[in-house]
Each structure stands twice: as C-alpha cells, then as structure tokens.
Amino acid sequence: MIRKWLNASRQFGFDPVKFINACRGIPRFTRDLSLWRRMTGATNPFSVHPVLADFRESAGSADGHYFWQDLIAARWVHQTNPQHHLDVGSRVDGFVAHLLTFRAVTLLDVRPVRTPVPGLSFTQGNAQEELGHLEGSFDSVSSLHAIEHFGLGRYGDPLQIDGHLKGLRNIANCVAPGGTLYVSFPIGKPEVHFNAQRVLDPVWPLEVLTDFSLEEFVVIPWRGEPTYGLSPSQVDLSRVGQAGLYRFVRPPRPTEV
Fold it and tell me: Nearest-CA neighbor of 183 among 216, 136, 143?
C-alpha cells in the first residue's frame, strides 16, 4: 500500500521521499551557506540555488531491475556480436544506449523518439500487431521490461487482454533461425496491476516460445544482486519485486547445422 501511495503521488509531480530528504538537508545547507559567505564575502541572494536532497545520496544507483538487466543483457549481446540487432520497447537511455556504444540498433516502439541518435534507426509501431516487414530479419532481438505493459494502454497502445502474448510472439518472429532473443519482465504470482504492468509466471515464456530453447535465465530482485542458476520453475512465486531476464535461441535451419 505504501508503494502504491508513493507511485500515485509521483504521478502528480510530488515525491514524498524526496520532499522528506530535502527537509532533512535544510540544516546542512544553511550551515554550508553561512560558511561559504564568510569564506567568499558573497551576499547576492540570487546566486543561491539550493540542492537539498543530494547530501544523503550515493554515487549512483547500481541496483534494481534496470541496472542489472541492462548490464547483463548488453554483455550477452556484446559476446554474441550480432550483425543486426532489433530492440522493441526497451529504455533508450538505458539498455539501448549501452548497445549503441558498440552496435547499431534498430528500435521499434509505440512511442516516438524525437531526437536523432547516431547508430539508431527508429520505427514507430505497435508490437501487438504482426510485424511482417521485420519477421526473420534479425540475428539478435531484445525487449526488456516492455512486454508486461502491452495492451494496458499506459503508453498509448490499444487495450488488449492478451497484448503481452501477441507481443511476445510477434517479437520472437523477428528472430532469424540461429538467432537470439532477450526478454525481461516482472515475475511472480500472475497479476495485472492496471494500468501499470503485469506480473507474469516465470514459466510463461517457455510455454509460448516452444520453437526456442532457453539458454540462460537470471532472477533480478528490486534490491540486491541477481540470482543465477535457477530454472524458471524454481522461482519462489510468493516473493514480490522480482524480474526475470531470459536468453532464448532459435534453432538454425536443418541445412545450417
């Protein structure tokens, strides 16, 4: 309930956690400002730009779903060294940016990308619909923390009860024989948190992608280090805040073996 209240407050531009931390920073800021003025003789009030919450911050966030999935999946792609990579719906300022340091990327998203980015080819589209012009065209395809949103309307996409199912299947169809598919989403006891996200059973993609083989699976908690070596069927469904990161491979055509 606390998390839901925090998320609802942030939708309206109010972050209670940041507000509290800013209030706690006022005494430190006041002391530092007084000392700075004595050191420099500065008196212009318009030269003061208070930043109150950073006193207690760390040197960056090296934790959570997005940090670990972006790091691990980018390493996987780097090791595989594909010729053509397609991403569907992942964060441009996260995972996609990681890939662009060493690989050109084709991006498909229902939302626009308004700023040209070197190495990024963008197509606006809805993965809940068939992607005929992209099918079988990429030896590497990714969709990280996106599929759970399909069909809920959060990003302007049409409402579809099975949008996540159609989306996963359509994205997988873009993988060429012998190619690799990387996907991630929240896992646990299946639930729909309208219109934010779905929580999906960790075994679910194996039941959908019967023409793929699962090569690697990582469980990523909201806080703490990832867990390697589990199978999707071994995940504790009672734990909340988990994400699953999957690396699937589509078998090559028989003539390519």
Answer: 143
The residue behind tokens 């706690």 is: 24
Between the two ends of the chain, the Cα-to-Cα distance in Å is: 53
Instruction: Give the start-end residues of each E strand in 188-241.
Output: 191-193, 197-199, 213-221, 227-228
Beta strands 85-88; 105-109: pairing state: parallel
Q: Which residues are 186's β-sheet partners?
A: 243
Euclidean distance between CA atoms 67 and 78, whole angstroms: 17
The closest of 77, 102, 105 to 89, measured between CA atoms, is 105
Express each pLDDT in 68-105 by its tens digit. Answer: 999 999 999 999 999 999 999 999 999 999 999 999 99
Main-chain phi, psi angles of 189, to 5 degrees: -65, 125
With a cut of 90, say whether residue 61 has pLDDT above it: no
